[in-house]
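Pilot study result, target chain (372 residues):
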Amino acid sequence: MDLARGLAVFGMYAAHVGPDPSEGGAVGFVMELSHGRASALFAFLAGFSIILITGRDAPKTGRVGRQAVAKVVIRALVLLAVGTGLTLTDTPVEVILAFYGLYFLLVLPLYRLGARPLAIIAGVGALALPQILYVVHHVLDADEPGGIWTWPADADGLVSLLFTGGYPALTWIPFVVAGMAVARLDLPATAVRLRLALTGAGLAVLGYGGSWLALRLVPGALAAVAESGWEDGGSAASAWWSDTWGYPSGDSPAELLVASPHSETTLSIVGNSGVAILVLVGCLAAVDAFPRLRRLARPVIAVGTMSLTAYVLHVVGIQVLGIEELPGSPLHVLLGFLVTVTVFATLWSRFFRRGPLERLLGKAAELARLVH
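Predicted structure:
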């Protein structure tokens, strides 16, 4: 888990302070792999963590169960507060922490369910919620042509977290629920890992491959996407997997056929979920198959144990250095961020089990003991 989290942190750093993927080449390709997929992996692992807190083998019940639920609620509220605080600094980063806090609260009622019902809910959510979001954005919103609804001014914060922000809960909840479903499985079993790896690969092919086919086989789809006014002016042919084209403008329903990581479509959720599953299974298998890997990967694992600290540090670093264009920094800037957080995490882990912010979060969660 910590190895996967560490990789997600590195991916988030690459997405924010790495070179612009549109520059192309091997570096651009690697940078593009991180965009959207790192944050989806974080959301997936967040669901896994909820099950670890509330009982993985069996849901905790009684007073212990209520305290576990309280711990999740406290963590969610802290993330909402920290995320909101970072956002108010006008950082160029689209801070995801407040969104994560809301995800925790929205999925918490599902913590007693088993793997199968959780997987079904994640699948139904991936199929239905992007279409609902499209309707909310482009049919109901009075700011859009033909829109019929005006959001109350005092609802901006919640509306952003649910619908209009960079990581709207409506289309990111499936990642969290999928992580909860995987956490319920018997992951040490080889057969389970194999089936999970095949599932992840199948989802990735279905999401990205399905988008590639749909854009070319549905009459007029690729042309409609190309004319729909996306921002960056890249080739619409890359919209089946890459953000280098830009972000959907909502001018055409054909945009629902793309799978670029931040397009908030069914196909993007399916593809990104497959990648998240493959990363987790790959980390589990690699550490078990190669015992020395745990020692070699210890710096990355250390970063994973303090992912909240690492995330906040990189936002602060971006502010201090005055970086305004994200992405687009030279490669050496990214390497500097990666080396700094890895060295810090490695040294810190020699004296403490958890990162500085994780320790504070744990202290706050101790309030759950007051629950009877």
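One observation from the pilot: Residues 1-35+291-354 form one domain. A full batch analysis is planned for the follow-on phase.
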